[in-house]
Structures are given as structure tokens and as C-alpha cells.
Amino acid sequence: MSQQKQARAVVVGSGIGGLTAAVALHQRGWQVTVLERAESLDPVGAGIGLAPNSLRALDVIGLGGTVRDLAAWQGEGGMRAPNGRWLSRTDSAAASERFGGPLVLLHRATLVDVLRSALPGDIVRTGAAATLVDAGEPGGRPAVVRTEAGDLQADLVIGADGVRSGVRGVLFPAYPGAVYAGFTTWRVVVPAPAEPFPPHETWGRGRLWGTQPLKDGRIYAYAAAHAAVGGRSTDGEKAELLRRFGDWHHPVPQILAAAEDAKVLRHDVFHMSTPLDTFHKGRTVLIGDAAHAMCPTMGQGGNQSIEDGVVLGQHLDPAASQAQLGAALAAFTADRLPRTTGIVAKSAKIAKLAMLDSAPAAAVRDTLLRLASLGPSALALRAFDGVCDWQPPQRTYAARTPVHQARQAHQA
């Protein structure tokens, strides 16, 4: 962060949070290198929902409008029971009005392409496994990251390497790590069925299913169920889904019929039920699942990673003195740790409610959901108060970037 040379940041991991942080820091004038152990940036074949909070974060780096243009949900949606009965209804206009913008469902590959397009071609290095060797010291020695091609010294290292973060393990070796949440998930993207349907999430006993449309005409479906950690079906995951969900309401059977077994993704859910005390140490900081892995029941994992990346960029001035880096990272932790800790806890509570096994308990839950939906706004929306209405802590700086200026010129 010397004014004699360009400050250098190394991002370990090229997921959504890592790429967002890379864009934010690049736009602020940092020299950024992203190290990704995989041979390509091709993400898993699944969808992701971006809520108004992360879209406002993307506005900061000039990408919010591009993503909003991909919004597909229009009209009614809500929560259902396995027989198709509505438990809680809402619509896209009510959600947009309550939180100041739409919910956008898109394929992860599309989002990665949007983020990647905002970076110069030489920033992301694939096939580059990385290990943090030294977290560094603000005002003192640089951080060091080891790769097969040699060691990299950096003014800043960002650990964006996921729920099993190696960077986190080096920074906080006594931390117990993420724990199994008690259920596994499946995800698949298929062509839309001929008969239309409103987007929904369906809660059963120890199981849930969601079906959401994408802008390109395909359908993103996801499911969750209690299962032993590490379990896999001997006759394929499509067969497992048919056993668990094949008799649920339309369009679940049609989605399963269209699914290819080889493209059904299954992942156990791990979350950080014990929060970290801090997200940074020395010149190194954690973001995304490396810092606060959460259950997917609020759909906020990727959203919080995007917030992390943008807020980190807002705090880190590349022209600041070396000694000021520690204060900037402390301010980032102060901004992000309380918020993400609360969302991790709330996601876990909703997961327990959604995954109730007991028939009487599930019946009481469903009755309460129906009664709550009779109020002035659907329970499904009220659950996101304080989450989706988040605003970035500083005004945007995207208007000063070449990406944003080029988009403005094109629109003119």
C-alpha cells in the first residue's frame, strides 16, 4: 500500500465472493491476482438467487443493472405443502416493493461470466492451488502465498476458498470448523415443463423442494432431506429424488422426469454454527463461506459473499499507508461479522423449522404458516426484513469505472 508502487492483493478462490472482491479491489486501483485450484471457472450446474441486498452491492461495482435484467419471477409464488396446498402466498411485485428491488434467479455460470467480464484477462489464474504461508503484518512484513509456480508476496490476502477453507485453517488453527447441519441437498437445471406453474418452495416432513424459473426458459430445482453425512444412493441420485419426492404436486414429477441422473448434484450441508471472533489476522481476511458458511434455507450464502466482496473493496484504499491496513480490516470485520453471524443463526433456525420430521409438529407449523399469511404481508417476506433491505455502507464508486462508463455510453 505504498504510494511508490501499486498495492497487491491475492485472492485465494474464484467463487462468487472471490470474484466480487477482485472486481471491487481492481476498480479501486489494486493490482489483483486470483488463484483458483480448479482447471477452469466452470461452476457447478446450479442456480442461485440474488436478492435486493446483493443487487445493491453489485450496483457499487456497476453490475447490478446487468443482473436485474435477468429477473424472471413475475406474478404469484410462495410456500406449499406436498399435496399442493398453499401455505403462504406472495408475488413478485410485493417482494420488490418491500425490499426495493426484484429477486433474480440465474444460473451460477451466468453470474460468474458477469463478474469475470469486469476483470482483465490476466487476473484469474486457474489450475493454481495456493497455500497461505504467512498472514503478514500491517505496517510490517508482507503476506506470503505459496503456489507450484513459486511464492507470492502480497499487501493483502483474501481467503475466499469456501467452507473447508485452507486459509482459515492457517489463520485460526484452533477453530473447530464447519459442522454438518443434518441434511443433504440436491440441485438440477432442466427444461421448463409444458404446463406452467408459479415458483414455489414446498415443505414436507424432513424434506423440502423448490422450483424456480430462470430467464433463459429453464427451471432451477432444489431439494433437501435429512440424511446421514456422506451418504449416496446406490442406484443414482435421480432415483433417490423419485423415492423422496416423486408423488409431490406438479411440477415436481415433471421436473424429475426431465432430469438427467448425471447432472443431479448432491452436497451435504455444513455450516459454521460457532462464529469466528474476527474475519482477519495480519494482512489476511476471510470472506464468504470461508468466514460464515450458512444453511441454504434463506438463500443468502452467495448474497452475503457478494456483500463481503463489495464492502471489503469500500474499506481498502490502495493509496493508504501500510499501517492503516489493520484498521481497515478491523472496520471490515466490524461491519460484516455481526450481520453475517445473525444470518447464519437465522438460516439454521429456518432449516430446523422447514425440516421437522414429526407429523404433529409439521402440522402445527403448516397451520401457523397459513395463519401468518393472512396478515398484511406474507411470512416468507417478513422473514427477510433486516436482510434484503440492507444498503452498502458507502455510496457507490462504480460510476468512475471504465465498465460503468462504457455501459452508460452504450445506453445513451
Topology (elements, then pairings):
Layout: E1 8-12, H1 16-28, E2 31-35, E3 47-50, H2 52-60, H3 64-68, E4 76-80, E5 86-91, H4 92-99, E6 104-107, H5 108-116, E7 124-125, E8 131-134, E9 143-147, E10 150-154, E11 156-159, H6 166-171, E12 179-191, E13 200-203, E14 207-213, E15 218-226, H7 237-245, H8 252-258, E16 265-271, E17 280-281, E18 284-286, H9 289-292, H10 301-315, H11 324-354, H12 359-372, H13 379-382, H14 402-411
Parallel strand pairs: 1-2, 1-11, 2-7, 4-13, 11-18
Antiparallel strand pairs: 3-6, 4-5, 8-9, 9-10, 12-15, 12-16, 13-14, 14-15, 17-18
Q: How is this structure best described in words?
A:
It is a single chain. With 412 residues, the protein is of the alpha/beta class. It has one domain: FAD/NAD(P)-binding domain, CATH 3.50.50.60. It is built from 14 helices and 18 strands. The two termini are 37 Å apart.
CATH topology: FAD/NAD(P)-binding domain
CATH class type: Alpha Beta
The domain tally reads 1
Measured as a percent range, the helix fraction is 25-40%
Instruction: Please name the fourth-level CATH homologous superfamily.
Output: FAD/NAD(P)-binding domain
Distance between the amino and carboxyl termini: 37 Å
Q: List the uncertain runs.
A: 397-412
Question: What amount of the residues lies in strands?
Answer: 15-25%
Spatial strand order of the main sheet: 5-4-13-14-15-12-16
Number of H- or I-type helical stretches:
14
| Radius of gyration from the alpha-carbon trace, in angstroms | 22 Å
CATH architecture: 3-Layer(bba) Sandwich
> What is the global morphology?
globular
Q: What is the β-strand count?
A: 18
Classify the secondary structure makeup into a structural class.
alpha/beta
- Provide the residue-averaged pLDDT: 90
Largest sheet, described in full? 7 strands, mixed
